[in-house]
Fold this sequence. Notes:
It is a single chain. By secondary structure, the chain is an alpha+beta fold. Helices cover 22% and strands 34% of the residues. The strands form 19 sheets. The chain has a seven-stranded mixed beta barrel with strand order 12-13-14-15-16-18-17. Strands 1-61-63-62-60 form a five-stranded mixed sheet. Strand 42 and strand 43 form a beta hairpin. Helix 8 packs across helix 11. The longest helix has 22 residues, at 480-501.
Amino acid sequence: MTALLLAAAFACGAALPAMAEQATPETAAQPDPTEWADEAQDVTEAEDAPVYQQADAQEVATGETAASLTVTAADCTAQFIDEAYRLFLPVNTDMAALTIETGAELAAADAEGLTVDGTTVSGDFTNIETLNLTFTDGKAARVELYKSQLPSVSFTLNGVTLDEIQAGSKNVKYKGNSVTISQAGGSDLTDTDVEFKGRGNTTWTLDKRAYQFKLSSKAKVLGMDKAKTWLLIANRQDTSMMRNKAVYDLANAMGEWAPDGRWVDVWIDGSYQGCYLLCEKVQVGTNRVELEQADGILAEADNIYYNGEEYWFTGNQSGTHFTLKDSAADDLDEQDSATLKAWSGFETALDEFEDVLYASDKDWNIISSKIDVQSFADYYLISEWVENWDTFKSSTFCYRDGANDVLHMGPVWDYDSALNNEDESYGVSNPHADYAMNIQDQQRGEISLTWFTELMKCQQFREVVQERYQHTMRPLLENWSETCNDYRSTLENSARMEFVRWDLKDQPGTARADESGTWQQDVDKLQDWIAQRTAYMTKRFDDEFVRRGNQADSMTLGGLNDNAVKLGAGQNKKYTFRLTPASACDTVRVTVDDPTVAKAEIGTYAGTFVVTGVQNGETTLTVRAGAASATVNVIIDDEARNGWYEENGKHYWYVDGERQGLQKGGLEFTDPDTGCRYWLDPDDSGARAENRKVQLDEDRLCYFDENGCMAFGEYLEHGGWYYYDEKTGAQCRGPVVLPDGRQVFYSLTNGKMLYGKQTICGTSFTFNTVNGSRSSGPDGLFWLEWGGKRYWFESWKRQGYNPYDSSYRGKEIYDPASDAWYWLDNIQNGAMAASKDVYQESNGGKWVRYDENGHMVKGWDTNNDGTYYFDQVYGTMAKGIVTIDGNLYLFDVDTGVMQASITASEEAMADRVIELVNQERTSRGLQPLLKHDGLMVAAAARAKELSQRYSHTRPNGSECFTILWHLGIDYGYAGENIAMGQRTPEIVMNDWMNSSGHRANILSENFDCIGVGYTMVDGHPYWVQLFTGDFDW
C-alpha cells in the first residue's frame, strides 16, 4: 500500500523539468524581461547614486518651483498653469489692499511696498502683474495677477464639486447653491437658493462647459428683464467670443425678440472658469417668448438630437424633425393633456403650411396667410448673412400663439458655428455665395429641404426680403465695424484672462483649431469677413434678383433604375429632380418623345414628376428648367415591373418583374413613395393585406387599412377604438397614455377601448363614456396579466418596454406589495422575466437571477447546471473567489457555477499541511510560506478535479496552472504537488518530503505563497499543494 501511495504522488515545479512550470514573463502575462531589467537597473542606479541626490538638493536650494501650493486671494484660488500661479480676480477686488495666502512660510517677495507675514503677502497690488515669491524651504513661485473688468458671477456649490458635476449628466439639477453677481462698485444680485446644472449638446463634451442656473425668484440681472432662469454660454468654439451676441443684438435691433446677453467672468467655488455670455433662455414666458394662449407652442427644428426628445414629429414635406421646446400650457417638466393637445394642433398647422409651401404651383396668398412673413424674412436674412451651419439642422426655432395665430420664425439661437467659424468642408466659409436659400447645395452631407429654399421661389417673399434688408438690416450691418470695436474694447481684458485659462490654439470643431495667431487677429479676421459678406448681400438683393430670383444651372434626377425609367404597362411611379441652385425659380416641364409608350407630368409637390407606362416599348423623357435639363431612357416592359400593380381587385408589389411576398412569412416593407408600411400575404399569392388584422409575430398583432397601410396610433375599426404602437404597429392592450394625455384602457382580450365602470384584475376603474379617459381607479403601481405574461405599470405606463431604442434592455423594479425585485424584459415587450438570468448595470454591473415567480433570487440556488450563490442584498451572482459565512468558495468567473468550497474540517487539514511545510522550511533557514486565499480555493478545486483525472493535466485537457490564470492570480514562478490515498497531513507530508521532486517544490526559495486543497471522494482522500512566487530581477 505504501508503494502505491508513493507512486500516486506527483510534483510539478521548477525542480522537475519534465513536469515543471517555471512561468516566464510571457506565460505569466508580464512585460518583456529586458524592459523590466532596464527599469530595475535604473532604480538601482538612482538609489545607489549619491551624486543624483546631491544634484536634487542643489536644485531646491536655488529655487525649485513650489508646484503644490494653494494660493488664494479675495476668495479666489489661483490655477497652476505653465509653471506659474495664475490668480484671476473679480472686478470689484480692492487691489490696493489685497492679501495673498500661500499656505507655506514665505521668505521674501520681489515687489516693493509689500508686507510678508508668515504664509501671506499683502499690500498695494494696483500696479503689480507678476510677483516672485521665495519660501523658507528654498523653493520659489511666480504669481501672475489678472483683474476682471467685466461683471463677475461667482458660485458657491452646495455639497457637490464642479468635477462631480462635469463627470455626470448635464441634466442633473443641483439645488441650494449660492451666486453673487457683481459689477464694478458693488453687488448686483445675491441668491443663496440657486439651482445649477449643465447645458448644451456638443458643448457639454468640451473642456470649458456651459451652464444654466435658476434663481429662487425672478430678478433683473445686469439690467436685463426679470426672469428666474439664466444661461452661461461658454463660447468655447468661438475664439472671438462675439458671434452669439452679435447675432442676438442684430435681431433685437431689427425688432425681433432675441435673447439679451452680457459678457461676464465666472468663478465656481473660487476657481476661474473663463469669460461667458450670461443671457436669457429661449423659453415661453414674460420677457421671453410671450405666448398668451393656452395652446401656444414653441418648437425647434432639430435634425441632429431630435430622437433624444420625448415629443417630436417629422414635417410631411420637408422631412425636418420638430421637437417640443416649450409651451404656454405648463412647465415641460410636468406636461399635461393641454400641452399635448396644443402640440398635436401645432403639428397639424405646420403640415398644412408645408403642403402649400411645397406645392409645385405655389399660391402666395395662401402661404402668406399661414405665416408671419416679416419674421420669416428677418430669420432668413440673418441665416443668410451669418452662413449658419446649424440652420434647419438644430437650434432653429418657430412658434405659434394658439390655433388662431400664424406661424412665426425665431427666436435666433446658437451661432458659434456661424460667421466663418467652420472649416471649408462645411461649406460655410465663402462670403461671396448664397447660403441659406440654397443650403442643400452648400452643406456637407444630406439635409432635409428647408422652408427658405421654397419661399425664395416666391417673388412676393423676395420683395419683403429686399425691403427688410435695404431699410432695416443694411444700416445695422454697415455700422458693424463700430459695433465690433465696442465689443473688442469690452472684451479685451477678459480675452487675455480667457486664453491664459484656456488654450487659444485648441478650439475644438472649428476652423480655428491648431492655427496660430492671437485673439486680436481672430477678431480682425471676423471683422473682415463680415465686411465682405455685407457687401455681397447689398449687391445681391437688387431689383433684378427680386424680379427673376435664382436661375437653374444644372439638374439631377432621382429614383431611377440603372439611370433609366423602367415600368410595366399601366404602372405609374414618382421620381424626383433637384435643381442647382436649390432655390431656382424656373418653371419645370417634363416631356416624353413617344406618348404611346409612356406619359409624364410634374408631381403635386415640388421636386417630383410622375411617369405612367402605356404599353411595352422604349422612348426618352426630358425634364427642363430654364437652361438646365436632363434626359433619360424610358423602358416600358411587363417584365420590368417595379412597384404596385392591381390585378383582379388585389394589389401586388413587383421588383424587376418579380412578384414579391411569396416566401414563407410574407414580406413586411415600407414603400418609399407612399411612406406607408405594408405586408404581403404568401397565402394570398403575395397580395397586400387590406382592411384586416394580421398576427405578424408572437407579440405583434397589426391592422392594415383599406389601402393596405399599417395602422399606427388611435384607429377606429368597426365602431370601436383601438391603439397601435407608434413604431412597431403592434396592437396595444391594457393601460395606454395617449398623445393628448388621456389615460385609457384597451381590453386585454380584444384590444378595444373600454368605457364606463370596469373591474380589471380585481380592481375597479371608471372610464369616460365618450373618450375613454380614466376618471377613477389607481394610476400608481400595479400588475396586469394577459397572454400568460405579467406587466408592470407606473403612472398608467407600461414599464420596461421601449420599442424605439434598440439598445434598451428593460427595467429593474421593486414591488412593495410582494417585497420583491423584478426584471421587466424589453425583449418580451416589458413582460416580467421568469426563470431567467439577467445582466444589469446597477451596482457597478451584475448578473442576477429571477425565479419562476419573477422574484430576484438571493442566497443559494441549485439547478441542473450546478450550484450558485446570490448576494443577500443586491442579488449579485457570485463569481470567482468569495467568502460566505466565513467559508471560502470558488465560483466559475464566467458562468457562476460553484467549482469548489472549503469546509471547516477541510481547511483544518489544509492548515495542518501548511504548518508542516513551514516547519520544514524554517528548520532549514528558509522563509515560511504565506497562506493565500486565492491559492486555497484553487487548490481545493484542483483536489476535486483529481477525482476525475489524477494528473497535472486538468479534466478539460489544459495544464494545472490554467486555474491560476482563470482566477487572475499573478505569479512569476508556480508549482504543484498532488497526492492520493494518504489519510492524514503527517502521512502525506512524509511521502512528499521523501520524494525529491515534491521536496524541491516545498523547499524552493522561488516560492513565497501556498494554498492547500484536501477533499474526500468515495472514501479516497486527494491532496494538492499550489505554490507561487514573484520574479526577483
